[in-house]
Design goal:
By secondary structure, the protein is α/β, with parallel strands linked by helices. It has one domain: Glycoside hydrolase/deacetylase (TIM Barrel).
């Protein structure tokens, strides 16, 4: 059997940020909750796109200083359950933004407290959290052990080669999926061409690309797989705002069709936690 590329379709479900710029969701006293009507339309668009593609996906459950518990409470708990019913899995997605554009991922005590509290909220809402994705590729070395202890089996945070030390982003130039040492946590990085570190050109980041650039990244990943003669696993990053937009939704569906026709297949979160060789025996 020819070597294959397994793709985890990651849908970032973040709400709109009225701030933008350097900081998306810092603590904002008196901030209103997310626009429920707008978010309902995004949830519907995500589910419709997944159904149209006939593929599993992982959707992120947002938490941040601005919206710490909003997405664990009504009306969103029912939206998440509807996503689960459509074959989607949930990923906890903490955006620990500060007003100056930095974040709190460097504070292990803070990020530990956030994750422990959010997992407790998820349990109370009866929402199973299968995966994790950090905010904006940030990281802390304490996370693998913590996530493993919380029962999370899949990490979709890695951005191979990305370095923004001031935002606690410093990933080695390593494109391969792997299990973190001394844990059961499996890391599946965003798809990367292995050369540059431009999010507008070198990664499978849908809303920053066009079809030609996505296909070029895919070709580079496929060439690497064929050169090694071993299968690979990575993630495709899309967003709820994109899937609610006809242009980005069409591009997502077009690219998923393309990767399926060129050595790829979309796998579930559960499959992504299995050893890579398990699907290629």
């Amino acid at each position: 059997m020819a070597a294959e590329i397994e793709i985890v379709w990651l849908i970032d479900g973040d709400p709109p940020s009225p701030l933008g710029g350097r900081a998306f969701y810092p603590e904002t006293p008196g901030a209103p909750p997310p626009d429920a009507t707008l978010m309902a339309a995004r949830f519907a668009a995500m589910r419709e796109a997944v159904a149209e593609a006939g593929a599993p996906a992982v959707v992120t459950l947002h938490t941040s200083p601005r919206h710490r518990r909003d997405f664990f409470d009504p009306p969103y708990a029912d939206e998440w359950r509807s996503c689960l019913d459509r074959g989607m899995a949930l990923a906890l997605h903490p955006h620990e933004d500060l007003a100056d554009g930095k974040n709190r991922y460097g504070d292990a005590d803070h990020i530990t407290g956030v994750i422990v509290d959010c997992m407790a909220m998820a349990r109370r809402a009866d929402l199973p959290i299968a995966a994790f994705r950090s905010g904006s590729f940030a990281w802390n070395a304490a996370l693998p052990t913590l996530l493993d202890r919380m029962g999370i089996g899949l990490d979709l945070s890695p951005g191979p080669g990305l370095r923004m030390p001031e935002k606690h982003v410093d990933w080695p130039a390593e494109p391969d999926a792997h299990r973190y040492r001394c844990t059961q946590l499996f890391a599946v990085p965003i798809g990367w061409n292995g050369t540059g570190t431009d999010l507008d050109r070198d990664y499978l980041f849908l809303e920053r690309m066009d079809f030609a650039r996505l296909a070029a990244v895919w070709d580079a990943i496929r060439a690497r797989v064929q050169r090694r003669g071993q299968p690979a696993r990575c993630n495709l990053l899309t967003h709820g705002f994109g899937l609610a937009d006809p242009h980005w939704r069409a591009l997502a569906l077009q690219f998923i069709d393309h990767l399926r026709a060129h050595g790829g297949r979309v796998i579930s979160a559960e499959q992504a936690m299995e050893p890579l060789h398990a699907h290629h025996a």
